[in-house]
Predict the structure.
Amino acid sequence: MTARATPDRQVVIIGSGPAGLTAALYAARANLKPLLVEGLEAGGQLMLTTMVENWPGFRDGIMGPDLMTEMRAQAERFGTETLESTITQIDLQHRPFTLTLSDGRTITTEAVIIATGASARWLEIGSDRKLSGHGVSTCATCDGYFFKGKPIAVVGGGDSALEEAIYLTKFASTVTLVHRRDALRGSKIMQDKAFANPKITFVWDSEVTEVRDVARGEVTGIVVRNLKTGVLTEIPLDGLFIAIGHTPNTSLFQGQLELDANGYITTHDGTRTNIPGVFAAGDVQDHVYRQAVTAAGSGCMAAIDAERYLEGLPQHIESQDQSIQPPPTTTSAS
Amino acid sequence: MASDKVKTFTDGNFDEEIKNGVVLVDFWAEWCGPCRRLAPTVDALAGEFDGRITVAKLNVDENPSVPSRFMIRGIPTLLIFKDGQIAETLVGLASKEDISRLLEKHLS
């Protein structure tokens, strides 16, 4: 009996945004025959954007979904196998690691690259979730269409909020931007665009405390509280778009991997996590830069780190030895 | 390519089509990225549940009246009807297994 079964894979990549697909591209080119499990929000956050103007190499910009289609095709061209599935369970305590897919199948692997990214944050005031799909949205490109000629609001003050607000002026009669502070966090270029747009008005120093009307099953308005004065104001509108940042998709790894206070995976010496053989790349471990290009960069690092890890495994050397030795026999005793 | 097992619903034929049995309707549009992600799942379900349920897509761009009647303000949205009555609403992306489970629930 051998000490351990041969794992199904050398490396499995979880997630299909820029980090996961770049990791797959590098791992495939290193002949690791990676398996990439796409996850539910396949393609990642760029699938929800329109024009990406800061991806190097495209002077006129490129549509987010088109960029992801290209990245995926490129990773597959070099031998990445992609699986339209999600992981429901993962065992990182035993080697090889075991991943359980949503259809119940399991996969064993020597190394894992986690690139599960981050998902849009909700206000978590109850009424926002209850009216999801009925006037509250976290995706302007998906749902802006439903608000032609109607007043809406965007919550948030970063680049994403500004981009959504500007995009939504194509449909909405007015866009009210509600922000907790008295100044925007977004980049200068986006701020200038937003301030110059006649359809956008600003409500400063305020937070949304309630979305109405849950009983009617549609959005009729929001209640905002001024954080400096405490005054509550109701703003009648038909839609609310939430753009207050993201939370890392790490619930699968809780209790197994070291996470920081906000739930991000902690990495050290590149993309290494606290478990040797488990690497993390992209927004799931980065709350600072959060760019497509930095995610792709860390995906590349994770693939290189994983390759070096696999090369250093004693099993790697053993298995090479075994391949030139005859199999253990039971015949000699007879 | 959409599966030929997936019907196309419109504002015109909707009420007639949902009258009987379990019906899964995918509300979508060309410009919706996540809708494109959900399409293969809906196609696969149409194959797996062939003969047991009706699976259909409704383009919200071309058919504004049905989405507004059901107060749909976000896509993708999946509605499951049972004998003409709305039984489930799924907003956003859902896994094939989760949708299957809901369909089985209403079939039993």
